[in-house]
Design goal:
about 160 residues; alpha+beta; Alpha-Beta Plaits; SH3 type barrels; five-stranded antiparallel beta sheet; 3 helices; elongated
Length: about 160
Protein backbone atom coordinates (compact mmCIF):
# COMPACT_ATOMS: atom_id res chain seq x y z
CA UNK A 1 0.00 0.00 0.00
CA UNK A 2 1.34 3.39 -0.97
CA UNK A 3 0.77 6.35 1.33
CA UNK A 4 1.57 10.05 1.07
CA UNK A 5 4.33 11.25 3.40
CA UNK A 6 5.86 14.65 4.08
CA UNK A 7 9.56 15.05 3.45
CA UNK A 8 11.52 17.80 5.17
CA UNK A 9 14.09 19.48 2.90
CA UNK A 10 16.84 22.04 3.28
CA UNK A 11 15.55 25.60 2.78
CA UNK A 12 15.16 26.62 -0.89
CA UNK A 13 15.65 22.99 -2.01
CA UNK A 14 11.99 21.96 -2.25
CA UNK A 15 11.55 22.23 -6.04
CA UNK A 16 14.97 20.69 -6.81
CA UNK A 17 14.39 17.81 -4.39
CA UNK A 18 10.92 17.17 -5.86
CA UNK A 19 12.39 17.05 -9.36
CA UNK A 20 15.13 14.64 -8.30
CA UNK A 21 12.64 12.41 -6.45
CA UNK A 22 10.47 12.29 -9.59
CA UNK A 23 13.53 11.24 -11.57
CA UNK A 24 13.92 8.29 -9.15
CA UNK A 25 10.36 7.22 -9.96
CA UNK A 26 8.49 8.56 -6.93
CA UNK A 27 5.06 10.18 -7.14
CA UNK A 28 5.85 13.66 -5.79
CA UNK A 29 3.77 16.78 -5.14
CA UNK A 30 5.40 20.12 -4.41
CA UNK A 31 2.67 22.79 -4.54
CA UNK A 32 3.95 26.14 -5.80
CA UNK A 33 2.74 29.69 -6.27
CA UNK A 34 3.94 32.54 -8.43
CA UNK A 35 5.18 35.72 -6.76
CA UNK A 36 6.28 39.04 -8.17
CA UNK A 37 9.71 39.96 -6.77
CA UNK A 38 11.27 43.37 -7.17
CA UNK A 39 14.95 44.15 -7.30
CA UNK A 40 16.48 47.59 -7.67
CA UNK A 41 16.66 47.24 -11.46
CA UNK A 42 13.73 44.96 -12.38
CA UNK A 43 10.61 43.04 -11.43
CA UNK A 44 10.30 39.33 -12.08
CA UNK A 45 7.71 36.60 -11.53
CA UNK A 46 9.21 33.61 -9.75
CA UNK A 47 7.85 30.25 -8.68
CA UNK A 48 8.17 29.47 -4.98
CA UNK A 49 6.97 26.48 -2.92
CA UNK A 50 3.68 26.88 -1.09
CA UNK A 51 5.11 25.08 1.98
CA UNK A 52 8.63 26.07 2.91
CA UNK A 53 10.94 23.05 3.41
CA UNK A 54 8.20 20.45 2.71
CA UNK A 55 7.47 18.11 -0.21
CA UNK A 56 4.78 15.42 -0.38
CA UNK A 57 5.82 11.98 -1.63
CA UNK A 58 3.78 8.84 -2.29
CA UNK A 59 5.69 5.65 -1.58
CA UNK A 60 5.50 2.30 0.11
CA UNK A 61 7.44 1.25 3.21
CA UNK A 62 10.17 -0.68 1.38
CA UNK A 63 11.22 2.33 -0.77
CA UNK A 64 11.19 5.01 1.95
CA UNK A 65 14.97 4.95 2.49
CA UNK A 66 15.65 5.74 -1.20
CA UNK A 67 14.62 9.35 -0.58
CA UNK A 68 17.84 9.91 1.35
CA UNK A 69 19.81 9.43 -1.89
CA UNK A 70 18.53 12.83 -3.03
CA UNK A 71 20.61 15.90 -2.11
CA UNK A 72 18.60 18.40 -0.08
CA UNK A 73 16.37 15.82 1.65
CA UNK A 74 16.72 15.87 5.44
CA UNK A 75 14.08 13.37 6.53
CA UNK A 76 10.43 12.56 7.06
CA UNK A 77 8.07 14.70 9.09
CA UNK A 78 7.04 12.73 12.19
CA UNK A 79 3.93 12.78 14.32
CA UNK A 80 3.81 10.93 17.65
CA UNK A 81 7.00 9.06 16.86
CA UNK A 82 5.89 7.79 13.43
CA UNK A 83 6.22 9.17 9.92
CA UNK A 84 3.27 11.49 9.33
CA UNK A 85 0.84 10.12 6.73
CA UNK A 86 -1.22 12.49 4.59
CA UNK A 87 -4.54 11.23 3.23
CA UNK A 88 -5.24 11.34 -0.51
CA UNK A 89 -8.29 13.53 0.23
CA UNK A 90 -6.00 16.11 1.87
CA UNK A 91 -3.60 16.11 -1.10
CA UNK A 92 -6.58 16.57 -3.44
CA UNK A 93 -7.86 19.46 -1.29
CA UNK A 94 -4.45 21.19 -1.41
CA UNK A 95 -4.32 20.73 -5.20
CA UNK A 96 -7.84 22.11 -5.65
CA UNK A 97 -7.18 25.06 -3.34
CA UNK A 98 -3.83 25.87 -4.97
CA UNK A 99 -5.22 25.57 -8.51
CA UNK A 100 -8.08 27.97 -7.69
CA UNK A 101 -5.66 30.76 -6.77
CA UNK A 102 -6.18 32.84 -9.93
CA UNK A 103 -9.94 33.16 -9.51
CA UNK A 104 -9.57 34.44 -5.96
CA UNK A 105 -7.25 37.25 -7.06
CA UNK A 106 -9.79 38.36 -9.68
CA UNK A 107 -12.44 38.65 -6.96
CA UNK A 108 -10.14 40.66 -4.70
CA UNK A 109 -9.41 43.16 -7.44
CA UNK A 110 -13.13 43.76 -8.02
CA UNK A 111 -13.99 44.38 -4.37
CA UNK A 112 -13.78 47.81 -2.78
CA UNK A 113 -14.08 49.21 0.73
CA UNK A 114 -17.71 49.43 1.80
CA UNK A 115 -18.98 46.61 -0.43
CA UNK A 116 -21.45 44.23 1.21
CA UNK A 117 -20.55 40.60 0.48
CA UNK A 118 -21.84 37.13 1.22
CA UNK A 119 -19.19 34.64 2.34
CA UNK A 120 -19.76 31.49 0.26
CA UNK A 121 -16.86 29.39 1.60
CA UNK A 122 -14.47 29.11 4.51
CA UNK A 123 -14.84 29.32 8.27
CA UNK A 124 -17.47 32.09 8.13
CA UNK A 125 -19.56 30.50 5.37
CA UNK A 126 -23.15 31.81 5.00
CA UNK A 127 -22.37 35.12 6.76
CA UNK A 128 -22.80 38.63 5.38
CA UNK A 129 -19.84 40.99 5.72
CA UNK A 130 -18.74 44.51 4.87
CA UNK A 131 -15.28 45.08 3.41
CA UNK A 132 -13.36 47.42 5.75
CA UNK A 133 -9.90 47.24 4.11
CA UNK A 134 -8.30 45.62 1.09
CA UNK A 135 -4.65 44.70 0.81
CA UNK A 136 -2.43 42.89 -1.67
CA UNK A 137 -3.28 39.43 -0.40
CA UNK A 138 -5.82 40.04 2.33
CA UNK A 139 -9.18 41.55 3.17
CA UNK A 140 -10.46 42.90 6.46
CA UNK A 141 -14.12 41.99 6.81
CA UNK A 142 -16.62 43.34 9.33
CA UNK A 143 -19.13 40.68 10.35
CA UNK A 144 -22.06 42.68 11.79
CA UNK A 145 -24.12 39.59 12.74
CA UNK A 146 -21.26 38.22 14.83
CA UNK A 147 -20.05 41.58 16.14
CA UNK A 148 -16.39 41.46 15.10
CA UNK A 149 -13.95 41.92 12.21
CA UNK A 150 -11.61 39.35 10.67
CA UNK A 151 -8.57 39.51 8.40
CA UNK A 152 -8.76 36.98 5.58
CA UNK A 153 -5.47 35.97 3.97
CA UNK A 154 -6.35 32.54 2.54
CA UNK A 155 -8.69 31.41 -0.18
CA UNK A 156 -12.29 32.45 0.26
CA UNK A 157 -15.20 32.77 -2.12
CA UNK A 158 -17.22 35.97 -1.81
CA UNK A 159 -20.33 37.12 -3.63
CA UNK A 160 -21.48 40.72 -3.78
CA UNK A 161 -24.83 41.33 -2.13
Amino acid sequence: MMDWYVIYTKPKNEIKAASRLKALGFDVYCPTRTEMRQWSDRKKKITVPLFSCYVFIKTDVKNKNKVFEVPGVIGFLSWLGKHAIVKQVEIDAIREWNDAEGTTKVWCEELTVGDRVYIASGAFENQEAIIKETGRNQLKLLLPNLGFAVCVTGKIRLEKV
